[in-house]
Every structure is written in structure tokens, then in C-alpha cells.
Design a protein that fits this description.
- Keywords: Signal.
- Residues 236-268 are annotated as: Disordered.
- The protein is of the alpha+beta class.
- The chain has one domain (36-228): Trefoil (Acidic Fibroblast Growth Factor, subunit A) (Trefoil), CATH 2.80.10.
- The chain is built from 5 helices and 14 strands.
- Strands 4-2-3-12-11-13 form a 6-stranded antiparallel beta sheet, with no helix packed on it. It has a 4-stranded antiparallel beta sheet with strand order 5-6-7-8. Strands 1-14 form a two-stranded antiparallel sheet.
- The chain is globular and about 40 Å long.
Length: 268
């Protein structure tokens, strides 16, 4: 009888543990969500600057660089004294777009608990946001909309304890891989060389980098000032107004014999 009672008691404990654990996780997640909602600093837009500690000669090609988004991939290029990207070639059109992003919960009800995602602007004209994610097969960092990103690694993104550097899945596993031999690719034609990857398995991207040079890098968060963010918003708003109303110069300098012609949508 005692054995039966003990068996029932142990059985009840075994059954109850997952339930209690689930409730505890739910409460913990809700608390985390409340803290996230109250933490406005996660919504402050930031750029990503690169540092590389390697003593290899090629390290100077990525050290003091900046992260840019191009051709659905994430790249490292040099930056000038104003922290703006220096393109490999002067004829690159449109200009390289530097990462300018912030943290926000990724919208996927199938992920339990939900994960903190990372978004960035991908262009200034038009102003657009995309998700930053890690390709599940190659471990390269890419960007895209929800449809493009949902099957891949979208989080959990965070910052280091001092909030100074970017981390993913709890650690800094970012590496730069030399893809400068990309002949016949859009980035090869533009001279882009160092693509950003996440060494998720901490094994030097074994079987994934195909013998290419690799460098470990840290991604520093350079917070944008309120002035910079306001300037971007004003510029985006101005461009939207010009697109909807036409260039103001066009409106007021139309020839006299064409005053009746509709010039609101004309582009100069």
C-alpha cells in the first residue's frame, strides 16, 4: 500500500513538474515583456561599427569598419571620420546603406516564447525596415521581410551587459568571411568583400566557409543622437511630400505657355 501511495505521489510530482515549469516560464516571459515595453532604450536606433583584434595583416580591412546592407546580405566596409561607409568603388548606385536599427519582438505566434528580433532601415528613399536574420543553412547574416526571414534564425538578439556590443543567442559569435572572389555576382561587381556570418556552432564555420579567409569580429553599437534620428525623419517626410506633390521648383518655374499642364508628379 505504501508503495502504491508513493508511486502515486511520485507520479503526481512527475506530472506536475512540467505544468509548474510551464506556468513559471509563462510568468517569467510576461514579466520580461513588461520590462521590454517599458525599456525605451531598446527602441533607440543605432549603427554597428566593427573591431577586429586579429594580428593578421588582412585584419585592417575590417577593423574600424561599419556594417552596411546590400543585395540582401550584410557586409563590412571601411568608414570615414563621420562614421559613414566608404564604398569600394565610386560608381556604386544607389549609395551603400549603413545598418541603422533597433530591437523589437519578432511577430511569430509559433515561437514560444517569442524572440526579440532586430530590424534595420534598408533605404532612405523610400524609408523601409527589414528584419536582420541568420540563414539557417549557411549562417550568413541577411535581411528581408517576414516571409523571407521566418524560416531562419531571427533571434534572440540582445546587447552585452554594458549595452555596448551586439550579441545573438547569448554570445558574440560574429565573423567576417572573405567573399571577394564573387565574380558574376552583384557584390563582386561592386567590389564588396567581407560578408558577416554568425559562427553558431563555435567551430570556425566548419563546412560552411569553403576555405575562405575568416576573421572574428565584434560589433559595437553606436547610438544615433536624437538630432540624427530627427534629421532622418524630416528628410524621409520631405521626400514623401516631394513624391506626392512634385518638386517645388517644378511647380513654380513652369513656362507661361504650360501653366495649365499638370506638373505635380513630374520628376526633374
Amino acid at each position: 500500500m505504501a508503495g502504491t501511495v508513493l508511486g502515486l505521489f511520485l507520479g503526481g510530482c512527475v506530472t506536475a513538474i512540467p505544468v509548474v515549469t510551464g506556468v513559471a516560464e509563462g510568468v517569467s516571459h510576461q514579466k520580461k515583456q513588461n520590462e521590454e515595453a517599458a525599456n525605451q532604450t531598446r527602441m533607440i536606433k543605432f549603427n554597428l561599427v566593427v573591431s577586429c583584434d586579429s594580428d593578421r595583416e588582412i585584419a585592417n580591412q575590417v577593423d574600424h569598419g561599419v556594417i552596411v546592407l546590400r543585395h540582401d546580405k550584410v557586409w563590412i566596409v571601411p568608414r570615414n571620420e563621420n562614421n559613414k561607409p566608404i564604398p569600394p568603388r565610386d560608381d556604386i548606385k544607389p549609395p551603400l546603406h549603413a545598418f541603422a536599427g533597433f530591437y523589437i519582438q519578432y511577430p511569430d505566434e509559433e515561437r514560444c516564447p517569442p524572440e526579440r528580433g532586430l530590424v534595420s532601415t534598408i533605404s532612405d528613399d523610400p524609408p523601409m525596415l527589414n528584419w536582420i536574420y541568420v540563414d539557417r543553412s549557411t549562417y550568413e547574416l541577411r535581411y528581408g521581410n517576414r516571409t523571407a526571414s521566418i524560416a531562419h534564425i531571427v533571434g534572440e538578439w540582445d546587447w552585452t551587459e554594458d549595452e555596448s556590443r551586439l550579441i545573438l543567442e547569448g554570445w558574440e559569435g560574429f565573423v567576417a568571411v572573405d567573399e571577394g572572389d564573387g565574380e558574376g555576382t552583384p557584390w563582386g561587381a561592386e567590389g564588396l568583400r567581407w560578408a558577416l556570418y554568425f559562427d553558431r556552432d563555435d567551430n570556425g564555420l566548419k563546412g560552411r566557409r569553403k576555405g575562405r579567409d575568416m576573421l572574428e569580429v565584434e560589433l559595437g553599437r553606436r547610438l544615433q543622437s536624437e538630432e540624427e534620428q530627427l534629421k532622418q525623419l524630416e528628410e524621409a517626410d520631405r521626400k514623401m511630400q516631394v513624391k506626392s506633390q512634385g518638386d517645388l521648383k517644378t511647380q513654380f518655374t513652369a513656362p507661361a505657355d504650360k501653366k495649365k499642364k499638370n506638373v505635380w508628379g513630374r520628376k526633374d
